[in-house]
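Researcher: I'd like a structural prediction for the single chain below. Treat it as a standalone chain; there are no partners to consider.
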Amino acid sequence: MKYGLIFLISYLIGSISGSFIIGKLFLGKDVRNAGSGNAGTTNAFRVLGVGGGLGTFFIDFLKGIILVLIIKKFFGQELIFYAVFCGILGHDFPIYMNFKGGKGMAMTLGAFAAISVKLTIIPYLIWLSTVLITKYVSLGSILFFISSVIFYIVFGKFSNLSNIFVILICLMGIFRHKSNIVRLINGNENKIGGKK
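Model: Treating it as a single chain, here is the predicted structure.
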């Protein structure tokens, strides 16, 4: 019963799409019909501009924090990572958007930061430095997920169940970037500014 309730709450919070709210409701644009077709922050910047992209990131980042705070308050610390996993499912596969959501980077960053800034700061800096140096947002995101697994499992003091969900969250994040990985390997991935 508790697992089901946490799943429902987390999925619904996760399915609140920043790009949908800003794009469809305020700007009359659906980011899924332009650019890469993804309903995440990077494509929101391409399709909705800087303001729309920042708004999308803020909403998705904030809902990760809100989810953690709500679950911790009403259900305790034990199932936080399970809740985050369920929230990311809602973000990536929102039912009202025909299961075409984002890739979970901004929401995962917000949720992990709410759980432990200490364990999240280095993966975030790895993401930031990778993006600034290579101009590949996708590569930075992939390295963020990989480094998060390492830092949370090696340096975090969480239960085995929590560690399993940390791995699942990060594997899902990497899996959602599978098309980007193919383009990176082939040398035709989009860089910031539209260059390959």
